[in-house]
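Supplementary notes (optional reading)

For those who missed the lab, this is the record we used. Protein: Transport permease protein. Length: 264 residues.
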Amino acid sequence: MTMVYRAVWVTAYRELLRFFNNKTRLISSFTMPVLLLIVFGAGFTNTIGALLPGVNFTQFMYPGIIAMTAFQISLMSGLSIVWDREFGFLKEVLVAPLPRSGIIAGKAIGTAIVALFQGLIMLVLAPFLDVPLDVALVLQLIPVLVLISLSFSGMGLLLGSRMKSQQGFQMVMQVLLLPLMFASGVFFPLGNVPAWLGALSKVNPLTYGADAVRQLFLGAPADGSVIGVTVFNHTMSVMDDMMVVVAFGLVFLLTAAAAFSRRD
């Protein structure tokens, strides 16, 4: 058990050092969500108008952008495996007396802490968008972002364990990122979308993560017709959403651990 803890701690600490020592990555990971808020907000707020009483399009999109930030950073966790493999560092890690499950867990935890940090940084924009923010909301948001980050880290690590090059991983990420983001309700409500897109959103784990964060900020409408996600005519609560996210996350992490052990 001590070796497992050591593997988790060492691997997580290295992921944190890698992120915070890379100023370019630190700045760019914050810039992209802000640009999306500015571009989409400026372009559609006046056109679409209010989605809820006192809630314009930018305010609607803002919680989804926070969830998307955690999702995007977590999904890129697999890149560390590919990078370590290409430069030979992974072999050095694997010959050490560290359990591979601990390595996967450490990478997921390290990435989740980074994603949480980035998500919380986005909160500085709340006053400028007239989004109510208090200590109670932040305390509720932290475990939600942690669970979202851990779950999607599992997806990224699963993909990274199957990739041989950084170019291949980046290409797969580009193919996955946009469909998952646009089919999750980050940028628009899912209540009136075509049936095929609604069905696709139900099997998209980011849908439930974005819905949970949005409900924390904006509340959940009683009928789910505007911002709530409904599954089999049941309007999802924050707890329901997080149960789905955790279920996806367990599948991703366990599969990633198995794939990592077989491949390397």
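If you only remember one thing from this example: The chain has one domain: 2-263.
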